[in-house]
Amino acid sequence: MYIDSHCHINFPELAARMPAILGKMEENKVTHALCVSCDLPTFPDILQIAEQYPHIYASVGVHPDYEDTPEPTVDDLIRLANSPRIVAIGETGLDYYRLEGDLEWQRERFRTHIRASRATGKPLIIHTRAASEDTIRIMREEGAGTDAGGAAGVMHCFTESLEVARAAMEMGFYISFSGIVTFKSARDLQAVAREVPLEYMLIETDSPYLAPVPFRGKMNEPGLVRHVAEYIATLKNVPLEQVAQQTTENFFKLFKIAH
């Protein structure tokens, strides 16, 4: 079986097709999915999905790209995370690719999420793009990760270097690969995936974005995460069943879900 460790099925283009989305998951043996929060106004919709479907879990957080949105406090995140259906804090992190200017507000938002993670004991979902140096620095400064006594987490939709992956794994973080790893242009990322141990790996879709080959350019959905697993199995020259089993076990272990 497979688990989509990061999706956005609350987004309108997927939420409108929920029965079909869930059916595709079942058809492809995708047993669980984690619906990830991007802002506070849409968080109630995410929580409702997780409460309605027992195999869907949720997170609470505010994406680093979202400028004009209510800013969370540590107390806000702690309060909203007080549900067994909320298994993580995030997604959070830093993104210097799309935004310019003084981004100190983004770094402060990241620190807020790390502090909420430490307070709740729920793992972090970290987004980093063109900001890996500051991301790792702030993780260390704020005590993110098990090496500092905090909760662990995952570097989602990973596209950074092997050095960044190793730094994150040293702090107890998992590395999650999306459909990007299947792209012909992603040779550097494929080299990283070969080196990341399965014991530290998750798979995801980040749907509705980044559909894996052979669906690239189409709308992504959780049922397609098996294609990420299949590609990684080929890349690492291991049985598909091994990738499926290990990434599934990693998901339940990281997010402290009984199975």
From TrEMBL:
Return the similarity comment: Belongs to the metallo-dependent hydrolases superfamily. TatD-type hydrolase family.
| InterPro entries with a match to the protein in the record | DNase_TatD-rel_CS (IPR018228), Metal_Hydrolase (IPR032466), TatD-like (IPR001130), TatD/YcfH-like (IPR015991)
* CC annotations in GO: cytosol
What Pfam families does the record tag this protein with?
TatD_DNase
Taxonomic placement: Bacteria, Pseudomonadati, Pseudomonadota, Betaproteobacteria, Burkholderiales
Q: Which superkingdom heads the taxonomic lineage of this protein's source?
A: Bacteria
Binding positions for a divalent metal cation 1? 6, 8, 91, 206
Q: Which PANTHER family does the protein's record reference?
A: D-AMINOACYL-TRNA DEACYLASE
Which GO molecular function terms does the record list? DNA nuclease activity; hydrolase activity, acting on ester bonds; metal ion binding
Positions contributing to a divalent metal cation 2 binding: 127, 156
| Protein name as it appears in the record | Uncharacterized protein
- CDD domains attached to this UniProt entry: TatD_DNAse (cd01310)
Query: Which keywords does UniProt give here?
Result: Hydrolase, Metal-binding
